[in-house]
Amino acid sequence: MKALTPEAVRKLITGRSHPPKQSNNFESGSQKKVSSKRQEKARTDTGLEPYSGSWGNQEIAHLLRRTTFGINFNDLANVSSMTLPDLVTSLLQDETLPDPPLNVRDGYTGVPIGQTWVNKSGDFDFNQDKLYSLGAWTMGHMVHQNLTLREKMALFLHNHFVTQVEIVVEARHLYSYNNLLREYALGNFKELTKQMTINPAMLVYLNGNLNEVGAANENYARELFELFTIGKGEQIGEGDYTNYTEQDVLAAARVLTGWVNDYLVNTSNYISEKHDKGDKQFSSAFDNVVLSNNEEQEYIDLIEMIFSKKETARFICRKLYRWFIYYTIDDQVEQQVIDPLAQIMVDNDYELKPVLTTLFNSAHFFDEANRGCLIKSPLDLTIGFFRQFNVAFPDNADLINQYANWRFVYLLALLQEQRLGDPPSVAGWPAYYQEPQFYQIWINAATLPFKRDLTNFFTLGPGYESGDFILGIDPIAMAESVSQPSDPNILIQELIDLLYSIDLIQDQKDFLKEVLIPGLPDFEWTVEWNNYKSDPDDPNKLAAVSSKLRALFSTMLSMAEYQLS
Amino acid sequence: MKRREFLKRSAPAVTLPFLMGGVPIRAIGKSSFFEQFVTTGEENNRILVLVQLNGGNDGLNTIIPLDQYSNLFNARSNVLIPEEKVISLIDDTGLHPSMSSVHSLFQEKKIGILQGVGYPNPNFSHFRSTEIMVSASDADEVIKTGWLGRYLDRDYPEYPEGFPNDNTPDPLAITMGAIVSTTCQGPITNMGIAISRNDALYNLNGEDFGEVPDNNYGHELSFIRQTQLQTQLYLQTVSDAASKAQNLSSLYPEAGENTLADQLKIVAQLIAGGLQTSIYVVSLGGFDTHAEQIQMGTGTDTGLHADLLQKLSDAILAFQDDLNLLGHEDRVVGMTFSEFGRRIRSNISYGTDHGTSGPVIVFGTSVNPILQGDNPEIPASLDQEDNLPMQFDFRSVYGSILKDWFCVDEQVISTLLFRDFQYLPVIKTDNVTGLEDEITDASPLGQNYPNPANNFTTIKFRSSGGHLEVSLFDFQGKKIETFINKNIPVGEHELRIDTGSLRNAIYYYQMKHANKVFTKKMVVQR
């Protein structure tokens, strides 16, 4: 099977080889400035106290939408009787690490199809085959995730401890990096940071493997402070960023000398001769600590030093906040959410579970002000669509095609400017740090029409055909997941409840009903549906209801509300 | 993936070789020369407006067979219009009393009516029957493309790749309403756009997106909606057209009183504003009159169905009046359709159930202003299930409009409609161009006459002195002949062309003169 290119997928989905040229639709003066109309929101003063409001489908869906890559009607039904604390506990349960990725390509002659390549050294000529396998495999975990937090957290960590496939290149290194993300997704953040510091993929990505005595390479040390742990504070002097200084960067770089990756064995090694054995003097930001030579244990001393500062916990908690709740962190959020959350993190020595448990049980998480305001990332949107509509993928028996379809999903997200495995820079995806737009960066003149074409491709057409397999929705099955599909009002309402975070207004519901049954009274839907049910093998009756359902789905997924979680 | 491969897999029916005069049609759109001509010139494109009556219109109470009145009375006394109130249209055929506007248009020769339009093996499902009507399929085949979508795809096979562009800046088709009409569904994408309440035009006319809550959710929602609006590819061209023209008719009801009139009003505005869009789809819902289609107590000529027909009729009248005042009446033809008619016998709820064939109304100065088809014969005794027989296949109406209004070759039409069709004189054929042959200041090149040409045709043109060239091109832009290529004295001239050796097709003739190029389309049809 020929691998699909992004261009081919774009053409398939949109009919265009390139994004459409945008005419300048608005004179700059006439463009409405939404932000200027914005006023300070009336906010409640919720904090981390346990949520005690109503607990129903809306709240369950809110929690599951934010903590997974999408839910369907069955997911909702399965957990509907759980309490909030029980559901959070269930979301935070540990899972065994997935089986390794398999070779699915003929051209990779070193490993039979269906066998894993992760323990096979060498084979550098087949790196592309391995990367193909790894990328698809990663996507597969997200698409087929259990109802747990692991995959959403693994992506959070990927966005936090960024590496890029394009730069690291070596597939086995990247596999070990991916495994690390999943292993620590709900584990100890400090331990993860230690592991990540000497992970072979990271050593390559931020030049740790070039960092040696007499020729310190500061790349990793700088990002360790700035992006991975304590964060850059206000610049209060030359080379002084409040939380750390340039002196600290250099000192840390020296601490980290001596570590190199090993491409053949897929590990990292400490080479004492490359290690800087001198004392490393840190600034007052770290209480003027001096780290002395501790050989291969010295990087641990460095991490412990950084994590001894509560600001590190605050920095991590802010990133969690922007990942799971919203991007605006004002004084009130800082005081009532970030700071106490950071304290929990410190008190639990950087274990993530107590922090996440508190956050997801909190009144703040369920605050009306924080619902429906998170713009879905391309991965959220795309994987979410497949999960909401319970779209089946090829099974293990059709391994090659299974990977090909996962790869297809990868390309769909890529065409919306989110390339799994390759954030645009070491800072991660700008949607989670770039002020003032944040999430809004996902929505632009190129991606938005593509998103509409994408949902139309699947809702209106048969889907993506590969071999004998069709990756597509079953409109009838989707309708039958509703409690009473024969009632157009219930059908539409339950779809609204599943697909949107916030209920639509009546005008919009009327509009959707007009799409389902144009110009017709409600009972005509019931008649047509029951006609189909009484004779489901009649292609005419099937076509009658499925085409209307498809029109409804298409419309619902093209509404602005669908972009929000 | 190659587009052709995609077509083969998704819609096998449309991969039939489209042939026109031996030339594969698919090649045509690839010629930018062709596209250049399609949109060249002043507002000279022809426009078709489809009026979809959702729910299944009760044809027997719309076009009333007066010669069958006593049998009709037996069948549907509780909904039948009193004989004396029926408007006499012609001979034994009458109109619902709410349709006086249509009657006056009929007298002005701007209305044509076809009786008994339907299809074999009728389906009584709204959804399926609508699908059959818009796809032009047989009752037992499911076709995903629409008949006008296939027509447009023939001319614009690359769409949406590279659209809009300088040659084709405007939407190919516009649906007024919630979602873009399936009638315009092409093999790969819908060939049209929809303009709805939430959309560009309304918004630019001052309406807002609707309420959003004043919170983070509302903030993000507004942002996404604003971006959606800005990414409407055709927003600028549509709103420009809307801003260039104002409706002139005083016959439109107040906004909100007649949704069909509201839609047609915008259509007229866009046409007058110079939009080159050739297909508009508008709709009116509520025709599913199972119960109380008449108002009990005030007479069977009042109530739900009477109101709907009044809206339909008044909307058409206002639209025609507007187009006339705006000077575009001759470029526009309209046609109503509904998924089915209703049962001959009424039910005890003062309504009528799903039926089969029904009347189609065509409107405009270019329609053949006659009643076609016979009054249906209503048997003296009827079962509840009895239905009207079909007189004309709906695809014959489509095919005839494609042929006479859009000048599509019959062979091509047969492939677009998957079958040969019975030709019906729906459009006045002595008025095929709808254009005047006068030369004007704007265009010193006149329309050929007669057009379509048979064996000869004449072209008027005006020279301002100096070199002048007149040539003929085929549809693909290939030059066939140069008639004049020399200095021509100042003044008006006539060029007579022998078309006897040209095959039936659309051609373009072009005049190059004084650093300008003028182009007109001509049809050869024998």
From TrEMBL, chain A:
InterPro entries: DUF1800. Residues 1-51 are annotated as: Disordered. Residues 20-33 have a biased composition (Polar residues). Residues 37-46 have a biased composition (Basic and acidic residues). This is DUF1800 domain-containing protein. It comes from Splendidivirga corallicola.
Automatic annotation (TrEMBL), chain B:
It comes from Splendidivirga corallicola. This is DUF1501 domain-containing protein. NCBIfam families: Por_Secre_tail. Residues 449-524 form the Secretion system C-terminal sorting domain. It holds the Pfam family Por_Secre_tail. InterPro entries: DUF1501, Secre_tail. It comes from the Bacteria.
